[in-house]
Write a structure and sequence with these properties.
NAD(P)-bd_dom_sf, 7 helices, Sc_DH/Rdtase_CS, oxidoreductase, two-stranded parallel sheet, Rossmann fold, four-stranded parallel sheet, SDR_fam, globular, binds NADPH dihydro-nicotinamide-adenine-dinucleotide phosphate
Length: about 240
């Protein structure tokens, strides 16, 4: 479970642990936040361990799986990955005239390249019946020129979802994406600093509120569950009807 120290990732990690999974709480720098997630899962009777690796830098995939495998071996478990949730991502506001090569490299190296390579490697540990769940965004279904590079990176994720679902069908592995709308996390905190900003974001949902991490976690938990074994290659909207 990448990017599980905060926000939507934390919500998903806590939910999957409550549903019985042993969760690798991955993070980049925020050890304290990751530790708090592990503690909260354990306090609720679940199982979790922290896993630190910065994504988007050389050697990221190798160091992530070296640490992942070692953590499982320490628990007496053969390295194995039943559910991979690709959640960690970086955002960045830029309209087309503000786009720089650095921004494209940064966003694509974390949101696309690292995700693709860690999925390739994770699949070598995934048994029949496994799940790959990619956290996309509702902005792939509507026009959002304010964050054009970030939107494009999430579009790549949807394309990966479609291609991989067919590739992995013979192994009984499903591959789906979940598309949140605006959700109350650090990623968009700046947009919610005023009552007007908060009201504007809330008004994008037909429910007139901003989403919470647990709203997204419910959709992910469904895709990870046995009930979703016949669902693959889909983009499941979890935006509160943002684009209706
Ligand atoms: P946050 O910014 O709140 O949390 C990001 C998480 O990803 C943290 O755990 C962070 O770790 C980790 N992370 C960030 N950069 C890296 C990196 N380079 N290497 C490794 N880990 C990293 O994000 P959200 O919870 O808001 O978003 C989660 C997902 O949901 C993302 O894929 C996002 O694109 C998507 N999404 C979010 C929406 C929203 O409104 N919030 C809307 C639509 C989609 P650390 O704590 O160590 O920094």
């Amino acid at each position: 479970m990448t990017g599980a120290s905060r926000g939507i990732g934390r919500g998903i990690a806590e939910r999957l642990a409550a549903d019985g999974a042993l969760v690798a709480v991955h993070y980049a720098r925020n050890a304290e936040a990751a530790g708090a997630v592990v503690s909260s899962i354990r306090a609720a009777g679940g199982q979790a361990f922290p896993l630190c690796t910065e994504l988007g830098v050389p050697g990221d995939t190798e160091s992530l799986y070296t640490a992942f495998d070692a953590a499982l071996v320490r628990r007496g478990i053969e390295p194995r990955l039943d559910v991979l949730v690709n959640n960690a991502a970086v955002s960045g506001s830029a309209r087309i005239h503000e786009v720089t090569a650095e921004l494209v490299d940064r966003i694509f190296s974390v949101n696309v390249k690292a995700l693709l390579l860690l999925t390739r490697e994770g699949l070598t540990r995934m048994p029949e019946g496994g799940r790959v769940i990619n956290i996309s965004s509702a902005i792939t279904r509507m026009s959002y020129p304010e964050s054009i590079v970030y939107s494009m990176s999430k579009g790549a994720l949807n394309t990966l979802t479609l291609a991989l679902a067919k590739e992995l069908g013979p192994r009984g592995i499903t591959v789906n994406a979940v598309a949140p709308g605006f959700t109350a996390t650090d990623m968009n905190a700046k947009l919610r600093t005023t009552p007007e900003g908060l009201a504007r974001l809330a008004g994008l949902s037909v429910f007139d509120r901003i989403g919470s991490p647990s709203d997204i976690a419910g959709a992910v938990a469904f895709l990870a569950s046995p009930d979703a074994l016949w669902v693959t290659g889909q983009l499941l909207d979890a935006s509160g009807g943002m684009h209706l």
